[in-house]
Amino acid sequence: MSDPRSPQPPVVAPHRGLQGTRVTTRTTCRICGSDRLVLLVDYGDMPLAGGFLTRDELAYQTAFPLRLARCAECTLMQILDVVPPADIFTQYSYVSSTTRTLIDHFAEMGAEIVAAEGAAGRLVVEFGCNDGVLIRPLRAAGARVVGVDPSDVALRASREDGWPLVQAYFDDTAAARVKAAHGPARIVTGNNVFAHVDDLHAIVRGVTALLEDDGVFIFEVQYQGDLLALVQYDTVYHEHTCYHSLTALARLLDTHGLRIVDVKRIPIHAGSIRVTAARANTPRQPAPIVAQMLEAERAWKVDRFGEQVEARRQSLRHLVVDLRRAGRRVVGYGAAGRSTILLNFCGLGPDLVEYVLDMSPLRSGKYVPGVSIPIVPPEPFHANPPNYAIMTAWNYEPEIVRKEQDFLHGGGRFIVPLPDVRIIGAI
After folding, report:
1. 305-424: CATH number
2. pLDDT tens digits for 192-236?
3. Could you tell me which of 290, 288, 291 has the C-alpha nearest to residue 273?
């Protein structure tokens, strides 16, 4: 096993797409450096999940290898094929504030962590702050807030709302910039960002450099346990390099002198965890749930994950093909990254799926990459409802069902693809 502080360099794979892009292939684990990476699912060549296309860009589409593996040493689940971040995030179209679920979730989180950690009037740094969906409630709770994010989405939001932004990827260099300008942080937070990073150690080095001596690192990640339990093959894409267990996170944080003192299961993104970590010499004792979850992870079964994925892929495709043969109109509902992978992996193109509805004005008028299905605003869906809508944003099922009662009571049906394919109508 290699030292994770000096990991083996990834192997350069053949050039496969964007001009100048060279995909790299991991041969060692991002956390522990082990070369015992067990392949779980090979997706073949897939487009970038968030790379929604204009009409003019349809002729210049790209695809990259996508393979999901799991480390037999530390249990980190990770993709092997890495696209440079600059090709993914500079023109990133994901906006957190498009769903009520996320807005409410982060409003609650902001107030909760500021109160729990005594951060009113003190510095809170959020990396991966996106459009400020958490920064706003943090400021409302009285914290001094700085965002760190490389995207144009974050730049626009910071200018509109008037909060300071360091437009960069978060690492020890960015942390030094923040600390020099604003001082050490009581809280460093980053939510659904750990999944996006190839060099996890650079992030944690930045956190340890930026924290006050008694500061805490509070972050949320999609939980590997829920990915396995719900067979979430659609959440695997190039933008998500890692899928975390608490076991793997504990290993990563320990390498940099941090330890987990609390963890909370949360339903967001179809199953996540909120982790609180402090310096290893903190007098703060870990909550009992930390040991309980670490023990429970030892019993996870992962050997059948690949065949579970294939069964659900075939089930969804066969259903949609049968519906179209019967003359039924089928659309998609929600143009998130999940939808790109689900539609491409299941072979559902514009001959089977008429369009994908999405609320975000940044995506409306564009096309789902790979399958080239048009993305439309809600109006066509409501004006001329289809017979069936694949809930490609199935992780927001309760919110979507509440919002689309007219569609359901008018005879429309939702196809929910995971954790098992099912059809829901009016109740």
Report:
1. 3.40.50.720
2. 888 888 889 999 999 999 999 999 999 999 999 999 999 999 999
3. 290
